[in-house]
Design a protein that fits this description.
355 residues, alpha+beta, Beta Polymerase, domain 2, 2 domains, seven-stranded mixed beta sheet, two-stranded antiparallel sheet, 8 helices
Length: 355
């Protein structure tokens, strides 16, 4: 089924805060899952009514509403109205072309993240997906474009009573979402690194037009990776330095670890980009060398035939008084002369190491 796509131009001239989904519609169904937990209890509610979320900030323990799918705008709007989320934040949530960022409001924080997930429609490739987090004092919302199992490990960790998620607050849950998104880039880098190594071997043996196409594809992916990682580093750094009552000081050490991961990923990504640029130079040099080899062979052949053409041209003239025309062995003598000249030229070329 062909996916529906909306572009940023579709939002032109609309009032601020108007909800319109921008990007590819990855799923038409919106799935809501509400996790209410503390160290002693865990309750999971599937598809709760958005209006019932109004008392979420006053509920005991920690509440996490996981939203998968953004196509049903009325559901997103109802969630925002129930929790008094600013319309501009809701607009950013459904506009999936957001640059990773963090915004602070009086009662909550808004965090926009980007990750690269396997593309089900194109095996071997990855698609970008926006993940949004709204963090309150004892509640958190997460929004995904699809039903991808990105946050399934967090839901699984909640089932263990002794897990750190169960013992910490909503701020740790928000950190865990950020850390999960950041860690997805390690798998992306490993995949790109393996493909780059295979491509490098191909460049040194038998490069062709498909090799160049694959190389440009890798360069585009590495550029997309860089565009997502630079603002991601800013987001994690801002969260680490943020002085907000919504984030406990004990979470700072975990945010520093996530920041270290982003720096490590960026360093590896920059190394990969440099490697790909060098591989492009290798490809161009390899193609140039192959062309030079072909031209050298053709030049040697043409050079060999120049004196032979001269000899044949001389004896092909129709003058009556040419001494060799009456010679019984003239034909064989001309061929022998051609062979001797060719052999002498080949010997000279070989001594000069021209081939």
């Amino acid at each position: 089924m062909k996916k529906k796509v909306r572009r940023l131009s579709d939002t032109a001239a609309l009032p601020p805060g108007t909800l319109i989904h921008v990007g590819r519609t990855l799923t038409d169904a919106v799935k809501l899952t509400l996790f209410a937990y503390d160290q002693d209890r865990l309750t999971v509610t599937e598809n709760p009514a958005p209006a019932s979320l109004a008392d979420l900030p006053s509920r005991p323990g920690v509440s996490w509403l996981r939203v998968e799918g953004l196509a049903q705008l009325q559901v997103i709007e109802a969630i925002g109205q129930a929790l008094c989320i600013h319309p501009l934040v809701l607009e950013d949530i459904v506009n999936t072309h957001q640059r990773p960022k963090m915004e602070e409001f009086s009662d909550y924080l808004y965090i926009a993240l980007r990750c690269l997930l396997p593309d089900e429609t194109a095996p071997g490739l990855r698609r970008p997906e926006q993940v949004s987090v709204v963090l309150g004092r004892n509640w958190a919302l997460s929004f995904q474009e699809s039903h991808a199992p990105l946050l399934d490990p967090l839901a699984q960790r909640l089932t263990a009573p002794q897990s750190r998620l169960r013992r910490k607050g909503a701020d740790y849950l928000a950190y865990a979402v950020v850390d999960t998104v950041v860690d997805t880039y390690f798998e992306v880098l490993e995949d790109l690194g393996d493909r780059a190594e295979d491509l490098e071997d191909e460049l040194l043996t038998a490069p062709n037009a498909q090799t160049l196409k694959n190389l440009h594809s890798l360069k585009r992916e590495s550029l997309s990776l860089r565009k997502a990682l630079w603002p991601m580093r800013e987001v994690v750094s801002a969260l680490e330095r943020l002085d907000s009552p919504l984030i406990d000081s004990s979470i700072g050490v975990y945010l520093r670890d996530a920041y270290d991961h982003t720096v490590q990923i960026m360093d590896t990504g920059e190394t990969l980009r440099d490697m790909l640029s060098g591989m492009l130079d290798i490809y161009l040099s390899s193609v140039s060398n192959r062309l030079n080899e072909v031209m050298k062979v053709l030049t040697i052949i043409a050079t060999l035939f120049m004196p032979l053409s001269f000899i044949a041209g001389v004896y092909g003239m129709n003058f009556e008084y040419m001494p060799e025309l009456k010679w019984p062995w003239g034909y064989f003598g001309a061929l022998g002369l051609m062979a001797a000249v060719s052999l002498a030229m080949l010997t000279y070329f070989h001594r000069k190491k021209w081939f």
